[in-house]
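User: Could you go from structure to sequence for me? I need the amino acid at each position, not a summary. Structure tokens:
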């Protein structure tokens, strides 16, 4: 029996930590739904409501909407 997979929990996208000056991968679901992410290296909160992240969050939310729609082939 085929199991449905929430691709937004599987697919990841890089998010830049300005304190570490490095990008780290987080799931699309975390980027689209969380207000803050925690940098895995410096443990600083990455505030996704900051202006620098607005286009990323909007793009990820659009992607989640498009992959969450039922497939016509199903």
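Assistant: Here is the amino acid at each position, in order:
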């Amino acid at each position: 029996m085929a199991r449905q997979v929430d691709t937004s929990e599987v697919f990841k996208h890089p998010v830049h930590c300005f304190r570490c000056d490095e990008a780290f991968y987080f799931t699309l679901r975390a980027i689209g739904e969380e207000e803050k992410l925690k940098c895995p290296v410096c443990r600083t909160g990455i505030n996704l409501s900051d202006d620098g992240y607005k286009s990323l969050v909007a793009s990820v939310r659009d992607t989640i909407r498009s992959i969450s729609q039922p497939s016509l082939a199903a």
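One structural detail worth keeping in mind: The longest helix spans residues 54-68.
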